[in-house]
Amino acid sequence: MKRQELYVQMISEIANFLLNGNPRKMVISLHQEADGFHIAAIDDRPRTDKEIKDLRESLMVQQRPELAAYYGTMMGHDLLGSARLDIIGMQIKGVKVEPIPEGGVMINLWVGSEGFDPKMFTLSQGQ
Amino acid sequence: MLKARLLRFYLLAVLAVLLVGGILDQGLVPAFAGFIRLQVTPARLVSDFIAIEGVGSTFFNVAAVGLLGVGFLGLVGLDLSGAALAALFTMMGFAFFGKTVFNCVPIIIGVSISALIVRKKPRDYSLIAMFGTAMGPLITFIAFELGLPKEYALPGSFLIGILVGIAMPPIAIAMLRLHQGYNLYNVGLTAGFLGLFTASISHSAGADILLRTTWGTDYYLSTVIIVPLLSLLALAAAFGTRGRALRSTILGVFNDQKAILALTGRLPSDFADRISTRGALLNSGLMGLLYWCMMLVIGAPFNGPVLGGLFTIMGFSFFGKHPKNTIPVVIGILLAILLFDKNMLAPAPLLAILFGTALAPLAGEFGPVIGIVAGFLHMVLVERTGVWHGGMDLYNNGFAAGLTATLIVSIIDWYKSQSNR
C-alpha cells in the first residue's frame, strides 16, 4: 500500500510536468521489482538542448532523505503552480533523460530502498 | 563537500560571535548564571529573554540552542545544507524569546520516536524535529507555570513534550497539503493547530492561559550590531576567494544571486543546492542587512523578538526567501497597518512585518499583487491567532501565514481548475 501511494504520487507529478508542455502524446510505464521500481515517461513535445539539460539537472539533485520524507509528501498532491521535478529528484536512485528520435523526451526514473542498485534492474529500458 | 565546509565555517563563526558577545556583555559567570535561569523561565509568547535576563545570558541561550541543533544533526548523520541552516537559524532566533535547551529536547526526542514508529530513521524527520521546537513553551508551562508539585511537573512536562513530538510529523505532513508549500513556516501552522487543542484542554481543566507580553525597549549596542555583523560574515563567506580571481568570484556570486531571485521560494527551495552556496550566503547577508535597515529606519527596538525575526529571515534566505518575493508581502502588511491605524512598533505589527515573510512563495509564484494581498490578510489575522493557542506556538505568524496561504491557494486552485474545464 505504501509503495502504491508512491507510484501514484510520482506518476502524477511527472505527468503534471509533461502535460504542462501540452504534448499530443504521453506514455508512462511502470516496471516493478521486489526492491525497487522503474518509471519511464515519454512525450512528443520537441525540446531544445537547454530544456533537456535543465530537466536533467532538476532531476539529478542529490538524495535528501530529510527533505524527501517531509516535503516529498507533497509530490503529486499539489498540482497548483509549476511542476517540481526536484521533489522527484530527491527521492530517486537513478535517472536518465534523453531526447527521442521522433521528437520529445524520454525520462527514466529508478526508485528503491537503500540497498537498491538501478544498474541491477533486470528489465531493460526498452521493455 | 565544499558546500558543507563553507556553511560549517559560517555557522561556527556565528556561534563564536554569540558566545564571545555574551561574555563581553555580561561576563562569563553572570551570563552563564542567567542562561541557567532562562531554562526555568516561562517562555510563552511574547517572553523577551533579553528583557528578562540580559543580553549576555540570552546570547548564551541562543548559542546553546544552536549547538543543540548542530549536535542533533551530527547525531543523525546529516551535513549542513540550506534547509538545515534555515532550521538552525529558526531555532536560534526563537531562543531570543522562548526556546531553551530544556524545552527543545523532549520535542526532538518525540519526533525521533515518531520516525522510528513508522520504520524511518530519525534523520528523515530531522527538519520537523528542529522546527517542531516551536512547541517548547508548552513544556516550560507545564513544568514551571502550572503550579504542579515538582516531582510530577518535571517528568510530566518532559513526557508531554515527547508526546507532542510524536504527534508532530503526521500533522506537519497533512498541513503541507493544505497550503501546498506556500507557507514557509509549515510547522508554525502545525504547532498552532496542536496548540488549539492543548490550550482548550487547559481551559477545560480550569487553567486558562493568558498571553504574556515581556517586550524590552532598552538600547544595547550589542543587540543593534549583531545582525549586521553576522550579515557581513555571510558576505565574507560568499566572496571568500581562496586563490581564485576576485573579479570572477564577485561576478559569479552576483549571477547566482540573480538566479535565486528568479526562484519562487515554494517549499522546498534549498538555494544552496539549487543555485550555489555562495549565492545563498550572499542572499542571506543581503536579506539580513535589508530588514535590519528597515527596523533601524522605523525605529524598532532591537529586542529578543525582533532579533529572532531577523535571524529567521537570514536562515530562510537559504531556503525560500529573497528580496523579490518578500517585499510585496511586507508592503501588504504595511498597508494593513496604515489602513487600520495600528502602531507599527507594537509587538504584533512589528513581528508580522518580519515573520509575515513566510508568505514569500505566494508572491514568488503568483506575482507581487497576490503577495500584497497575502501580507494584508496576514496582518489582519495574526493579531487574533495568538489568543487561540495561548502563546503555546512560538511561530504564531507561521500559524496565521498557514491559514492565509490556505485561503489564497484554495481560491486560486479552484479558479484555475474550474475555469479550464
Named at the architecture level, the CATH assignment of chain A is 2-Layer Sandwich
Number of helices of chain B: 20
Question: Number of domains in the coordinates of chain A?
Answer: 1
Per DSSP E runs of 2 or more residues, the count of β-strands of chain A stands at: 4
Order of helices and strands of chain A: HEEHHHEE
Indicate the CATH topology of chain A.
Answer: Heat Shock Protein 90
Sequence stretches where pLDDT stays below 50 over 5 or more residues of chain A: none
Q: What would you call the structural class of chain B?
A: mainly alpha
Write the element-wise H/E pattern of chain B from the N-terminal end onward. Answer: HHHHHHHHHHHHHHHHHHHH
- Structurally, the number of domains of chain B stands at 2
- Indicate the structural class of chain A: alpha+beta
What does the overall shape of chain A look like? globular
Number of helices of chain A: 4
**CA-CA gap between termini of chain B:** 48 Å
Roughly how much helix do the residues of chain B carry, as a percent range? over 70%
Overall outline of chain B: globular
CATH class of chain A: Alpha Beta
Radius of gyration of chain A, CA atoms, in whole angstroms: 14 Å
Q: Classify the oligomer.
A: heterodimer
SSE inventory with pairings:
The complex is a heterodimer of chains A (127) and B (421).
Chain A: H1 2-20, E1 26-32, E2 36-43, H2 49-59, H3 65-68, H4 85-89, E3 94-99, E4 105-112
Antiparallel strand pairs in A: 1-2, 2-4, 3-4
Chain B: H1 2-26, H2 28-38, H3 49-53, H4 55-76, H5 82-94, H6 101-117, H7 126-131, H8 136-145, H9 150-179, H10 186-204, H11 221-239, H12 246-261, H13 271-274, H14 277-298, H15 304-316, H16 323-339, H17 347-355, H18 360-366, H19 368-388, H20 396-419
Helix pairs in contact in B: 1-2, 1-4, 1-11, 2-4, 4-5, 4-6, 5-15, 6-8, 6-9, 8-9, 9-10, 10-20, 11-14, 12-14, 14-15, 15-17, 16-17, 16-18, 16-19, 17-19, 18-19, 19-20
